[in-house]
Design a protein that fits this description.
Elements: E1 2-10, E2 13-19, E3 24-28, H1 35-45, E4 61-69, H2 74-83, E5 90-98, E6 103-107, E7 110-112, H3 114-121, E8 125-128, H4 139-150, H5 153-179, H6 183-200, H7 206-218, H8 220-236, H9 242-257, H10 264-290, H11 295-315, H12 322-337, H13 339-385, E9 392-399, E10 410-417, E11 425-426, H14 433-447, E12 455-459, H15 467-480, E13 485-489, H16 493-496, E14 501-510, E15 513-520, H17 523-535, H18 541-556
Parallel strand pairs: 3-13, 3-14, 8-12, 12-13
Antiparallel strand pairs: 1-2, 1-4, 4-5, 5-6, 6-7, 9-10, 10-11, 14-15
Helix pairs in contact: 4-13, 5-13, 6-12, 7-11, 8-10, 9-10, 13-14, 14-15, 17-18
Length: about 550
Amino acid sequence: MLTSLTIKNYAIIDELELEFANGMTALTGETGAGKSILLGALGLVLGDRADSGSIKQSSDHADITAGFDTRNIPAAAGWLSTQGLDDDDECILRRRVSRDGRSRAFINGTPVNVQTLRELGEQLIDIHGQHEHQSLMKSAAQRQLLDDYANHQALLDAVWKNFEELKQTEHSLKQLEQDTSDRDNRIDLLRFQTQELDALSLSEDEYAALNEKHSRMANAEKITTTLYQAINDLYSDEDSNTLSRLSHHISALTEIAEIDSDIQPAIDMMQEANVQLEECVSHLRNSVDDVELDPAELATIEQRIQSILDLARKHRVEPDELPAIHEQLASELNDITHADETLDELRKQYSELEKNYTAAALKLSASRKQAADKLNKAITEAMQTLGMKGGQFLIEVSSKGNTPVFHGIDKIEFTVSANAGQACKSLARVASGGELARISLAIQMITAAQCRIPTMIFDEVDSGVGGGIAEIVGKQLRLLGKTNQVICITHLPQVASQAHQHLRVQKKSARKQTQTNVYPLNNNERIEEIARMLSGVEITEQSLAHAEDMITRAQAN
């Protein structure tokens, strides 16, 4: 909901801070006091086109800030989170317009472009009247409202699921049909490449094993020389081999241990070392036996490695990636050589999915038409109570053609006739702002439970009506205020008296300057304002009594 609005240097407003509450808020004031200026400022911070002419004459820029509580607006809260602009449950929109025509926009302190601001604004406030933020004028919003009213999410999900499967199959089909145009050349290339890789027959990890074996064989002489030297020093040298000398010291120290037992741990370690050295010599002898000194095999390995490297360069991959490339090319060759079979299968699959989509879309269409009939009747009845006798509301549900879309085959259009005998026209073409606002009110009265935008502003909702009809309009707005935040700009006391919160717009002139201010009214001030609206310039005791009675009766409901 809208919680606050701050306006600086806009039109004839120096600085103005407003706070808004739940329920219904009435904005009243004499003609020309500046009620439309408030709407203009609000529209600007919601993303309307900026006009440097709206900046107060003595200033070089205008600044408008609006605060919102998004706890009960899941769509807006989700959008903010997705964009990385969320700030708990609070959302602050700001717009700054300079005299040179430049404009800056911010969401929760982060600079954004105006399109982003507008995208969020459309989820926060719905303005009903002669202004841009009228979601009911948009085809997508009309479809969404009808679907919400019908409460057929399962049918919508079925259409969406079939549409996604249909699109994926269509993409695969088009791709394969395109590929078949140069299929023969591709087959020849794939066959040549796979034959080369077949001939190489490289197994997993073979290249690494070959490199390791090649390294050992290429250094065989150095390896054997070093091994023999170690064996000789440790065991073979009769004069000074390590094992013989170690055994001698063990024997000598064993005799000493009989005299000094503290030496025994050292003897134990030497005996353990002796065992380790004997095992070491055995291992070295085996290693010598394993060293291969075969020039012919070394040449064969080198040739194998070179063949692998040549083919890897050809495919522009690392040598150990060749087995995977081999498998990939073989799979592609298999697919492309069986393309005709695959095409036939995909075409059958597409035809079946198309039937499934059409069946699901027709079920959805039938449900929409059934809901539209109920909604037409309910909204038409509501219009009669709002001063549009003989008016008619009609939702046209028509097929858009054979091209599948995610939301079905229907074109949804809200049409209306405000007066008896007139043909229904598109809601977007209704000329009178007052009629449009009242039609919007009638729609909101019936579909309030499905409304996704919690704050609604009604401008000129009472235009052209009076007396009993005006009181009905006011009661309906108050009723709507129980589930939504309703802000109503009105000239009629019958409407204003129904409000939960009352703001008065007042224009004052001093020192050749004109300024607009807005004041929240307490109960006594409300009575005086309603009395002024009833009697004009001169407020009488009778009008005060009448005003108090109207407010009391409204609060009792």
